[in-house]
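The pair is quoted verbatim below.
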Amino acid sequence: MNSFPHQLIYQSNGSSNGPVSPVHSPTHTPSPPTTSPGQTSPLSYPVSHGVPAIYSGGNMLFPFQSKLQPKLQSPLNHAFASHSLLNQNSGPPGQSLMQQTNMTVSQSHALSVTNTPHWQSQLSYYAICRNSNSPHHHARQAAAAARNSNLGNLGSSAIAITDPNNPNKPPLNGILPKKEKEANGEKQDQPFQQWMTIDLGGMGLKNISKELFHYNFLTTLYINHNNLTYVSSEISKLRNLTILDISGNKLSVLPPELGMLTNLRELLLFDNLLVNIPFELGTLYQLETLGLEGNVGLNDTIKSILQKDGTAAVIQFLRDNCQVPPRPIERDWIMLENEAGGDRDTFTLLCYNILCEKYATTQLYGYTPVWALEWDYRKELIMSEVLSYNADIVCLQEVDTAQYDEYFKDTFHNHGGYDSVYWPKSRAKTMADWEKKSVDGCATFYKSSKYQLIDKQLIEFNQVALQRPDFKKTDDMFNRVITKDNIAIVTLLENKETLSRVIVVNCHIHWDPTYADVKLVQVAMLMDELDKLAQKWCTNNSPYNYTSPQKISTIICGDFNSTPDSGVYEFLTRGIIRQDHDDFGDHRYGTYTSEGLSHKLSLKSAYSNIEELPFTNFTPSFTGVIDYVWYSTNTLSVTGLLGGIDKEYLTKMVGFPNAHFPSDHIVILAEFRVKPPQTIPQPPQFGLSSSGLQRRFNSSQLNSRR
């Protein structure tokens, strides 16, 4: 087995690359306590300015003053005082305990914890770790195991080591990749071993080259039993690591950036010189083993929690007592056109999946402090952010029935002047009244001073599927489509001043990535139903001459749970999808999979005018764009868009929600101008033709004879 080239991985102290400065854990300042938020809404408390904010002491946590146009930043008649969670005088109890490094544990307690399963597991790992201090111990063990197994008969165990920055460069150890072997006509059954583990243990290293951190495909890294006094913050680039062993070194501090390695299952830090653990490691929500034994000066609080309750309890303690990070800078407002038409011809629309209360659990969002997941905390951040943008139309997803009835409906009306339309998902119809309160749905709010509601309609995708005769003979319809209770709500709004109308569709498409076919079918049914509604809403009694569905301004927005390379995006943009599209797979859905899909609208994603945002959903397991605002290009134009989140801020975040962002989604906001109505050209009138004049002359002659 070829050894990894040492010069690529480490450097001796004083080499040409120079030593790397150690990264120290920052001093922790007071952070939100772990108590639940207060029940009293801060809406009743005014602050000295007209811009809503959430405060931590004297520092605003979420910026609501932005570079939006003044009409989007009109003074609001509400304001938010300091949130009860963030009023801190003495700091959280957790951090004060961490600072008491001289705190002693009673002898009886010390005797009791030695018998806990957590502590026995810790000691077992510790013993194994101490026995792995020889050079390349883990690699040698793996090689020995391979020789003794059937895998040893398959061929060479040599590893092809390539430069991650230049994949086309020849392998460092002369092993050809499988693709090149096939091109050279060699046997295709040659083994091709992919490697994701590096073992640099027991080598006496004093420094680790930063080149190592370019290998972001690594899942296991052993740098144990060396002479390291620090670990570079660039280790945060190794996001796929599940095992990291830094035991048996001389570390006195850890880089807080270790908290970015959210895939870690084992973090072994035995036999170092650690006193404190960075609170930022509280984001390691998947960590199963945290090895800390052998750090003689380790803080008693951490050691006591680890001995008594294990790794998960330590991570929870660190997570819930971590300081609130600095707030992000405000999001830019991107102007695309000058507003020559004025306010009467423009409107703004905001779309936001707010993360339903029942979905915001520590099981799904284990990297988020418990206090930041509390609904009483999140709902006021949601409300203050949405109201601060002062959009004319607001489309929210994942609004549960109880919160709409008890909070959102009246608060939006009283503090923003909004009327609203709401429907829960289809399953609510089969539930008792007390059960349906927890069912989420979609809510559309509109400024009552600007718009009047002409009509509204609920689209239940499973019910539409049942009514299609071409679906009734397909098993996939029963097994895959009808079992999903996603909905869309459609509203027809009329501008009270200009009498222009706009159809607003607010939808939430099925979430599961393994059901790409269902997503495509749901959107296809949405477009079919929308065409029927638009036909019904056509009218001649308007200066805009809405004689066909294509003439009515249309917005389709929501959480589509589909990326820009999906069939859903392609269908809405191009207006057509082949019947054998990859997203259908081998499933059958009547004419959709025998003839293909099509719709008549000319649609475009609002953000595609500047290229889609880097993401609208941000979690450790997924970061991408799945929320959109589509508009009819023949009747509307985009004049402005809300920009993305500060990139520098994101480098220190593992995902949302957090103290500043109350949902795993972000707000998307666009401003539109209604294009002037296109009058139907009349044929030119040039007077009577010569034949007409002759007919008139003959008629007059006939009358004179009479």
